[in-house]
Amino acid sequence: MKRLLDGLERYEDMVRPYDLERFAALAKAQSPHTMFITCADSRVVPDRMLGSNPGEIFVVRNVGNLVPTLDVDAGSSVPAAISFGIAALGVRDIVVCGHSDCGGMKALLGDPVEEFHLRRWLELARPDVAQWRGLGREPEPGPEHDQLSRWCARRQLDHLETYPGVRAARERGDLRLHAWWFDIAAARMMAWSPDAGRYVPARDALSAALRERGEAPHDPAAQPG
Predict the structure, then answer these.
(1) How far apart are CA 180 and CA 182, in angstroms?
(2) Which residues partner with 198 through β-bridges?
(3) Residue 8 belongs to some domain of the structure
(4) Which of 54, 174, 212, 218 could cross-link with 169 by S-S, CB 3.0 to 4.6 Å?
(5) pLDDT per residue over 142-196, tens digit each?
(6) DSSP the chain
(7) Are 40 and 66 in contact (CB under 8 A)?
(8) Which of 1-5, 64-68, 177-181, 206-210 has the lowest mean pLDDT?
(9) Is 209 a residue whose pLDDT tops 90?
(10) What is the mean pLDDT of residues 87-113?
(11) Domain limits at 139?
């Protein structure tokens, strides 16, 4: 509890005075540009990785960053968040982000989980594991659970396509889907590149996508004129 108190005191004394105006503007509405579906792992911190401010990223977290297909009775939390993000918030991008050393992926490759709720949740990924095993290993280094994690992040995009709201927004050109993967040891965010057929640094993937759309990516080295 002491660390909680220390952190809260730092926030109250050093951060809150600068946040007051921002939160006052957000008090009655939010307008995030991106939904970020990721693992509940404490080492994955979306706001820190993306340099985002309150109100910019709509975060959905669960064990293994799984997206149930719409036809699966897996509870309503993740489907409800997806529907809310599309219909109510109008997010323009959805990122599914896996990570290295994922306990959920390790559990899928190990002995059956005894705890009922965790076992039932992870069962959602069993078809993905079977498909991954049938296709063989990715041409990337790393332990088996990391290879599975990278594959599963990509598969969740297919699961998202089972949602009518996602399909409709995609058909209108209003929504983009991304598979990302965070390498904890390197503190590096990677993104799946269909063109490269592998994960590449996420900043490179986004810069390339912006150039294809005729938008100039931000140049951190550029100086204001």
Answers:
(1) 7
(2) 193
(3) no
(4) 174
(5) 899 999 999 999 999 999 999 999 999 999 999 999 999 999 999 999 999 999 9
(6) -HHHHHHHHHIIIIIHHHHHHHHHHHSS----SEEEEEE--TT--HHHHHTPPTTSEEEEEETT-----TTS-S-SHHHHHHHIIIIIS--SEEEEEEETT-HHHHHHHSSPP-SHHHHHHHGGGHHHHHHHHHH---SS-S-HHHHHHHHHHHHHHHHHTTSHHHHHHHHHT--EEEEEEEETTTTEEEEEETTTTEEEEHHHHHHHHHHHTT-PPP-TT----
(7) no
(8) 206-210
(9) no
(10) 96
(11) 29-212
Whole-number pLDDT of residue 225: 40
Q: Is the dihedral of CA 104, 181, 189, 224 positive or negative?
A: negative
| Residue 62, in any domain of the structure | yes
Record the pTM. 0.91
In a domain, 188, yes or no: yes
- Specify the number of domains making up the chain: 1
- The answer to whether residue 178 sits within a structural domain is yes
Query: What is the CATH number for 139?
Result: 3.40.1050.10
